[in-house]
Design goal:
5 helices, alpha+beta, 4 strands, 16% strand, 167 residues, 4-stranded antiparallel β-sheet
């Protein structure tokens, strides 16, 4: 909430690769930092169980868990993994390359415009009205879905050696 990123650091490893880290200050919220660390531990435990499952290992499913290094009681270095890709990046790529005339924020702008119109008209805001807005955005504003194209980053092939005896 009130923690902020102060700087981005690039650290060159002995292998020549540059690892980027973000300096985050959380001096006022030490309890929040500890709960975040526990949550990251939980995600690492989930990753271990995903490796043991045959299907999740075959699909290389795993949570992206950044490395966190405590520098001082109120400061941490958090790994900034540039190889991760977010859904927002996929959507922005799609809008830029597939439908260049479409604004990235067009669906959100339409949603809030319709909500404002409904409130001004005194209409009842219920699930049916929200579904109509959603279906209009899906059919008229967004491009049709396609999972075969899009930005891709190379992923390592999973080694599913520990999958014997699992479901």
């Amino acid at each position: 909430k009130s923690s902020g990123i102060n700087a981005e650091y690039g650290i060159r490893g002995s292998n020549g690769k540059v690892y980027s880290y973000l300096m985050v200050n959380t001096s006022s919220h030490v309890k929040q930092a500890r709960s975040e660390e526990r949550f990251l531990q939980l995600l690492r435990m989930f990753n271990k169980s995903l490796v043991l499952r045959k299907e999740s290992c075959r699909r290389n499913l795993q949570w992206s868990v950044p490395k966190v290094v405590a520098v001082a009681p109120g400061s941490r270095l958090i790994e900034d993994n540039t190889s991760n890709i977010t859904l927002l990046e996929v959507y922005s790529w799609w809008c830029k390359n597939r439908t260049p005339e479409m604004d990235v924020d067009a669906p959100i702008a339409y949603y809030y415009d319709r909500l404002g119109q409904m409130q001004n008209d005194g209409s009842v805001l219920n699930r049916i009205a929200l579904n109509r807005i959603y279906h209009y955005i899906q059919s008229n504003i967004l491009p049709p879905p396609s999972s075969s194209t899009g930005p891709r980053r190379p992923t390592p092939t999973p080694s599913c050696s520990g999958t014997s005896g699992t479901r």
